[in-house]
Amino acid sequence: MLAKRFRGFFPVVVDVETGGFNHETDALLEVAAITLKFDGESRLVKDQTFHAHVEPFDGANIEQAALDVTGIDPYNPLRGAIHEIEAIKELFKFIRKGQKNAECQRSILVGHNPTFDLNFVKTAAERNAIKRNPFHPFSTFDTAALAALCFGQTVLAKACQTAGVGFDNTEAHSALYDTEKTADLFCTMVNRYKALGGWPLNNNSSVD
């Protein structure tokens, strides 16, 4: 069913925490991903979760302003951070397994302003010469745009609150928490659209 819903794409919700905004120069510090599935009532729900703290790559730029927002101490041994190449390899392995089980043709990144997340993941893969990136190279599902359409909100916290998805601002800017809430928001919008009669489409209908 999942393979038929999104034109063969396997949706994977992703969030990253970084040392800045420049995906070419700034460190990838944390990455989380959640796969989705349809339950027994044909509702889209969260499935499997991946989460890793990441060691800054050699020569990475880290802006103090970014750390002030995330609260991350990149060199704290208690983070249990792993090398960037290991994190990306394990992320891609996790995604490809879910994609295969769902019988989808390719994965697509779902995120809140997802170009940011996709660029950091792609650049980390390229930096470590990791091939077979499961994600579509430029297409994404943007929950900020979808939330603007559905709820008149683009900020993740406000969109979740309007959608009836609980959001704790003290937990924000953790890759895992933000991924969980983005996944909840995306599932809420997809399921609400279905409940309103928008899916499956009536093949006999015509569009002027």
What topology does this entry show?
Blueprint: H1 2-5, E1 9-18, E2 28-38, E3 44-53, H2 64-70, H3 84-101, E4 106-111, H4 114-127, E5 135-142, H5 143-151, H6 156-163, H7 175-195
Parallel strand pairs: 1-4, 4-5
Antiparallel strand pairs: 1-2, 2-3
Helix pairs in contact: 5-6, 5-7, 6-7
Overall SS class: alpha/beta
Number of strands: 5
Strand order within the widest beta sheet:
3-2-1-4-5
Provide the gyration radius in Å.
17 Å
Quick one: overall form? globular
By DSSP (H or I, 4+ residues per run), the number of helices equals 7
> What's the pLDDT, averaged over the residues?
95
Largest sheet: 5 strands, mixed
What share of the residues does DSSP label as strand, in percent?
15-25%
Q: What is the string of SSEs from the N terminus onward?
A: HEEEHHEHEHHH
Give the CA-CA distance, first to last residue.
29 Å
**Overall helicity:** 25-40%
| Spans of at least 5 consecutive residues with low confidence | none
Task: Explain what this protein looks like in three dimensions.
- The protein has about 210 residues and is α/β, with parallel strands linked by helices.
- Helices cover about 40% and strands about 20% of the residues.
- The chain has 7 helices and 5 strands; from the N terminus they run αβββααβαβααα.
- It has helices at about 1-5, 65-70, 85-100, 115-125, 145-150, 155-165, 175-195; strands at about 10-20, 30-40, 45-55, 105-110, 135-140.
- The protein has a 5-stranded mixed β-sheet with strand order 3-2-1-4-5, sandwiched between helices.
